[in-house]
What we know:
Radius of gyration: 21 Å
Number of strands: 0
Largest sheet: none
Order of helices and strands: HH
Strand content: under 5%
Oligomer: single chain
Number of helices: 2
Shape: elongated
Amino acid sequence: MLPRNPSKIFRSRWSALFWAAGVLVTAVTTIGFGSAKTDAKPGAESALTDDSGAEVSNADLAVLRNYLAN
C-alpha cells in the first residue's frame, strides 16, 4: 500500500486523495459493505452462533474462558 518513499504521497493533495481512495477500495473489495437486510427483529436478543451455524452454549464459553485464562 505504501510506496518506497511514503512522503511522496502527501506532496500533492491529488496523490494523497488517490492513495486514500485506493485504500478504501481495497477495504471494500476485501471486506464488503455487509448485508443491508437484518434477520433479527428489533429488540430481540440474537443467539451466538459459531462458523458452522450451531448455537454457542454457556459450557462452550466456559471452556474458552478457561483456555484463555491459562
